[in-house]
Amino acid sequence: MIDPNIHTAVLSHAIKIAYTESGKQHKTVLLFIHGLANYMQVWQWNTIVLQNYARCIAIDLPGNGHSSRGNHAYSIDFMSEKVYEFIQVLKLENVILVGHSMGGQIALNMALKYPDTIQKLLLFAPSGFEYFAPHEVMMIKGMMNLGGFMNMDELHLSQSINSSFYKHSIVAKKIIEDLTLIIQNNDRNQYRRMVDRCIASMLDHQLFYQLKNIQQETLVFFGDHDMLIPNKFLHPQQTKEIARNAVAQMKHANLIMYAEAGHFIQIERAAEVNADMIAFLNANTQ
Fold first, then answer.
1. Calpha distance 253→247 (Å, rounded)
2. Any idea which fold 7-283 has?
3. 29-42: per-residue pLDDT in tens?
4. CB neighbours (10 Å) of residue 203?
5. Where are the domains of the chain?
6. pTM over 0.70
């Protein structure tokens, strides 16, 4: 599954961002941002088609995949700043951010911080749509610390990826194998620190009440059997309730719900997702 054609962009403080690129002849840029503790290859079922319609660039966020590690903040702001810097280094224009899960929260944050740089948004099961009250944030952080929640590494990774699919998938097995190898070939303590800091920042840097300030045209995708959004312990609502409530806060957003789909909708329902993304691109070029 690992793409042999991986490029590297060097940012400030010697941070290296790994990325793949295809469809370079197109003016519109789709910049794909993966979710928590993931990697660029989760977008390959989409870029293989969308490269015929846009310049497709998928990145590994700092601390993930083939990008460099380090003792960084790994906050939503830090990730947003590095993606913005990546855009500047590659001199990208006409950028549409495509974010999954935590990558969706990063995309939303970038739309707020750099509105002149980000043209539009395509969001897949984005975190940042679900609001957590202060006492809920404290509870989640307490559960994280209790018994070294994130020290399970490969076990937790496997459980998380499997639960992200509506049905058992060979693709899930391959993703787990790839990410497990990445963990084992890098510093385990840095991995744990990165994951912990990302989760903490997702909770501390909530965006629900800022969604009304998003000016970019946005298309949001959710699977109706998403087991990660909302938090099943704290929020017993259905996924569509969280999705509809958040999208209603935004001025120029539309929601597409997919039946019998989980958190990785861009993989499980790739053909339909790709068709909807192409329609979105075509509507915005007319």
1. 6
2. Rossmann fold (3.40.50)
3. 999 999 999 999 99
4. 18
5. 7-283
6. yes
